Amino acid sequence: MQETIVPVLPQGLAAFDLSERVAVVTGASSGIGRSFASAIVQAGGKVVVSARREDRLKDLVAELGADNASYVVCDVGDHQSLPEMAMQTNNVFGAPDIVVNVAGNTVRKQAEDLTPQEFLDVIKVQLMAPLHVAQQFVPGMKEKGWGRIINIGSITTSHALPGTTAYAACKSGVAGLTRAMAKDWGPFGITVNAICPGFFATELTAPVVADEKRWRGNAERTFIGRNGVTEDMHGALVMLCSEAGRYISGQMLYVDAGFTAN
Ligand SMILES: NC(=O)c1ccc[n+]([C@@H]2O[C@H](COP(=O)([O-])OP(=O)(O)OC[C@H]3O[C@@H](n4cnc5c(N)ncnc54)[C@H](OP(=O)(O)O)[C@@H]3O)[C@@H](O)[C@H]2O)c1
Predict the structure, then answer these.
(1) Beta carbon of 125 within 6 Å of any ligand 1 atom
(2) H or E, element range at 82
C-alpha cells in the first residue's frame, strides 16, 4: 500500500485556527447553535447561520459582524428546501468547509403516548436533516479534498432518560449516521463526528431546567458538580472543525463532565 503524504500540522494554536474556513451552522437562532456560530467566528472563521426565526438570525449576524457572518432562513425538516438553502449559503462566502448540524426539536411524552406524526416530526429534524444538509455541501468539500461535519448527539445517544422515546431513537441514530457518513466521505478528506452534550440550559431544555430537583440531580451526577454552559463545548467544537482534529472521525465526543461515565 502506498503511504499517504501527511501535510505538516500547523504548530501550537495555529492548528485550531479557522481563519481560512467557512462554516454553515443550522439551529443557530438560539442555544447551542448560536453559541457555536460565535465560537467559529472567535476562532477566525466565517459563518452562515440558519434556522426558521429570521429576527433572531439577523440579531446574531449584527452581533458577529456582516464581514464574518450572514444568515439563510430554512426549515431543515422540509428536505425539499435544502438545495435552495445550500445555493444561498454558497453565494455568501463560497462553498462551506464545515457543516455543523445543530437544529433540533423534541416531543416529551411517555412511550405509549407518542403518535406516528410526532415521531416523524422529530426524525425529520434530528435524524434525517443532518444527512440531507450535509449532502448539499459534500460536493464542495470533495472538490477541495477537505471537509468537517459535526452532528449533535446527546446523553440519550447511549443512555435512557424519561419521556424521550422519539428523541433518544434519533440521537442513538445519530451515532450510526455519524459513523456511516464518516466512512463514506473519509476518502475525500472529510471527517464526521458528533458532539454529545450533557445538560445545557436552552429553550429546548427549559422544562427540565424548570424542574429544580431534576436539574440539580443532573448537575450532581457530573464529576464536577454542575450543568454546562454552552461555552464549555467551544474547545471540542473548534478542535473538531480545525486541522487539530484531522485524525478524529466517526466519533461521539461526550462533553458532559462525566455524566455518562458516572
Ligand atoms: N441543551 C441541551 O442540554 C442539549 C443536550 C444534548 C443535545 N442537545 C441538542 O442540541 C441541539 C440544539 O439544541 P438547543 O438545546 O440549543 O435548543 P434550542 O435553543 O431550542 O435550539 C434549537 C435550534 O434548532 C432550530 N430548529 C428547530 N427546528 C428546526 C427546523 N425544523 N428547521 C430549522 N431549524 C430548526 C431552532 O430554530 P428555529 O426555531 O428558529 O427554527 C433553534 O435554533 C439539538 O439537536 C438538541 O437536541 C441539546
Answers:
(1) yes
(2) helix 82-93
* pLDDT single digits (tens) 98-121: 999 999 999 999 999 999 999 999
Domain count of the fold of the chain: 1
- Dist. CA 237 → ligand 1 center (Å): 16
**What is the pTM assigned to this prediction?**
0.98
- Candidate of 30, 49, 151, 218 to mutate for ligand 1, largest count of ligand atoms within 8 Å of Cβ: 30
The answer to whether residue 69 sits within a structural domain is yes
Specify if 30 maps to a domain: yes
In terms of Cα–Cα distance, which of 240, 234, 233, 231 is closest to 256? 233
Q: Does 259 contact ligand 1 (Cβ within 6 A)?
A: no
Pocket-testing residue among 47, 48, 50, 52, ligand 1, by greatest number of atoms within 8 A of Cβ: 52
**Residue 167 falls in the annotated catalytic set:** yes
76 in contact with ligand 1, CB cutoff 6 A = yes
Q: What range does the domain containing 86 cover?
A: 19-253
Q: pLDDT band for 3, please (50, 70, 90 cuts).
A: confident
Find the CATH number of the domain harbouring 196: 3.40.50.720
What burial class does residue 119 get, using C-beta atoms within 10 Å of its C-beta: 0-12 exposed, 13-18 middle, 19+ buried? Answer: middle
Q: pLDDT tens across 31-62, in order? A: 999 999 999 999 999 999 999 999 999 999 99
| DSSP helix, strand, coil percent of the chain (3-state; round to 5) | 50, 15, 35
Is position 258 within any domain? Answer: no
Name which residue sits closest to atom 42 of ligand 1, judged by CA. 27
Residue whose C-alpha is closest to residue 84's, from 94, 73, 95, 93: 73
In-domain check, residue 62? yes
Atom of ligand 1 nearest to the CA of 125: 31
